[in-house]
Every structure is written in structure tokens, then in C-alpha cells.
Amino acid sequence: MVMNMSVMNKSTFNDHAAVMKKASECVADSVLHDARLEVRKAYSDLIVDAAVPEISDISVSFDGTWFTRGHSSMYGVGSVIDLLTGFVLDYTVMSKHCYRCMIAKRRMPITDFRVWYAVHAPECDINHEGSSGAIEAEAALILWKRSEQYGLRHTTILSDGDASTYKRLSDEKPYGASVAIQKEECINHIRKRLGTALRKAVSEWRTRGCKLGGRGHGTLKAMTIAKLQKYYQKAILDNRGNLLAMKSAIYATLFHSISTDEKPQHGNCPVGTESWCYYQSAVAQVSYGDKTVALGVRRDRGRVVKAKLRATKKFQHYRQAIKSAKRRLLEAAKRTEGTTYKAGYF
Ligand SMILES: [Zn+2]
Ligand SMILES: [Zn+2]
User: Fold this and answer.
1) Ligand 1 centre and the CA of 13: distance in Å?
2) 169-189, pLDDT tens digit by residue?
3) 167 alpha carbon – ligand 1 mean position (Å)
4) Which of the ligands is closest to the CA of residue 129?
5) Is the pTM of this model over 0.70?
6) 52: which residues sit within 8 A by CB, 6+ positions away?
7) What is the pLDDT of residue 344?
8) Measuring CA to CA, how many Å separate 36 from each of 55, 158, 166, 174?
9) How does pLDDT run across 264-320, given as a tens digit for each residue?
10) Which of 73, 183, 208, 243 is most solvent-facing, going by the fewest CB within 10 Å?
11) Which pLDDT band, with edges at 50, 70 and 90, does 346 fall under?
């Protein structure tokens, strides 16, 4: 009896848990079966002039979620998601721990345990004995090896930046030596990497006595880094499938950002009135004589003036006043909430 309630004993609880596990697996299998059929249909719909192959090569993303962070987790689950439809195709639970083995080891001598284990082995929870760090790659390998059973080959993997999974799959070649597995990078991770590299550069140069960060105009402050990341991502997304144009667009954002009145560097920026580059857009709008450059430079100066204004004490006081007014409003709202929704109010 706990807290005036009759609770079931441990073995009854375990029996119920086992029944629920079986039922959930049954439902999961049926959902996965339907999802795979849909994915195969989606890929065969893409084929117009040729026969639909028995096994489709598809692009997937793979990731694992583990019980604890870092490289000490005892169990977790790895799953594969199709990129075209967004359906989960398969999953596998990885475990370095088996509760029943642990109890049996405690209760019986080793010779008896060996006999017991021979019977228990097919249903033992342990399916990974190496380091916890390699558990994700191991999960991927299990999923890749059995994908052909349901008519799909995961030949392109969208990576989350963890190189070990892709390396393991490339080394093991689950579909034979002639089928290579391609890797694609996630744009969000690429963008994040640029931010990390820029922040690292700021801190590294600080230790060398050179100040790149700070608050003034033209410094690599957090907001500027976020802006550069956004430009970088846009340059990649807008030029999908054209590597040269992508490279040029990335350089354009870099040169555009370091451009000054004395040294305008908008040569790589896209031209035309619709250009995101204010300089090139101005050039396209007024395309005669010295006025073209004059307009571009004037806009550049306008930005500098605005940035300087934002850095003045008066402007900062004004922003401070707005911030504290907002804070006061929020606190007042919280106080009201505290009085309105007292315990037992509903
Ligand atoms: Zn076991
Ligand atoms: Zn520009």
C-alpha cells in the first residue's frame, strides 16, 4: 500500500510492460509498412520515361537520440527519415544494458548464469558492446543493411555534421562495393559552422591583442555575424545546382560586407534594380555619368550616419527607456496573473 493506493507488484508490472511493448511494436510495424509503400510510390511517380526499379535509391536523413548526452549513454534510438515525403522509414533501439541479465548475474553463480543466458540470448536487450560514441554509427549500419528488404536503398544521407556515421557506412558498404553512399550537408549546420568559425576568430584574435568584436560600426558583433550567416545561407540556397554561381555569391556577400566609402567592393554583387545590393541597385536605377557612383556612395554614407546615430548616448538612453518600460509592463502583467489565477481558482 503506497499513499493509500493498492499498486501492482513488480512482476505484474513487468508483464503489463511486456504486453504494451509488443502492442506498440505491432502498431509501429504496420505504420512503417504503410510509410514505406507511400515512399516507394512517391519515388516511382518521379520516374516518367523508364521502368520503375524493384529497389529505389532514395535520400534520407539519419539521426539518433540517446538517453544521456555525450559519449556515456547506455541506450538510445536511431531512425531514418525519407527526405522527399518526411516519413520515418525505420528505427532501431540500441542498448548496452539488459536489466534481466544484470539481475540474473547478481542472483546466480557464473556457471548457472551461462546456462540461463543460452536460453535468454535471443531476447537479450544488449545489441551493442563497443564504446557509446560508436553507437550511432552502429545503429545506422543495422538500418542500412536491412533497407533492401523493404525495397529501398538509402544511397544519399543528409548529415547533421557528425562524420563518424557516414564514414562507417562508406567503409562497410552495406549495398556492395559498386553502390557508393553520398553525403549531403544540412544547410542549417553549414550556417551554424560559419557562425562558430567567426566567433572563434574573434576570440582568437582577441588573445593576440587584435580587437575584431565590440559594439562599433564595422565590428564583428553578434548581430553582424548573424547577418553574415543569413547571407551565406541565402547564397547557397539561391544557387542550388550551380557551384560556380554559389561560390561567386558567397564571395559577393563577403566583399559587400567589407565594402567602405573609400574602397567600394560590389564587383561580385548581383546587378540590376532588383539586386539585394543597394549599390548595384542604385547603379542600375541611374545608369548615366558620375551620378551612378554618387548615388551608391550616398546610400553607403547614409548607412554609416545611421550606425553612428545608433551608437550615440542619447539613442542608447532612448532604447534603455523603452526596454525598462517593457520590463515594467511585463512585471505588472505577471503580478496581475499571480492574483488572478490563485491556487484553487478553477
Ligand atoms: Zn540480457
Ligand atoms: Zn554590394
Assistant:
1) 19
2) 999 999 998 988 988 887 888
3) 30
4) 1
5) no
6) 44
7) 47
8) 12, 18, 23, 19
9) 888 888 887 777 788 887 777 765 545 555 566 666 777 778 877 877 888 888 888
10) 208
11) very low
Task: Output phi, psi for 225, to 5 deg.
Answer: -65, -45
Q: Give dist(CA 26, CA 19) in Å, integer.
A: 11
Compute CA distances 68 → 75, 133, 139, 238, whole Å.
Answer: 8, 12, 16, 38
Asked if residues 304 and 217 have their Cβ atoms less than 8 Å apart, the reply is yes
Neighbours of ion ligand 1 (CB under 5 A): 98, 101, 124
Q: 99: CA distance to ligand 1 center in Å?
A: 7
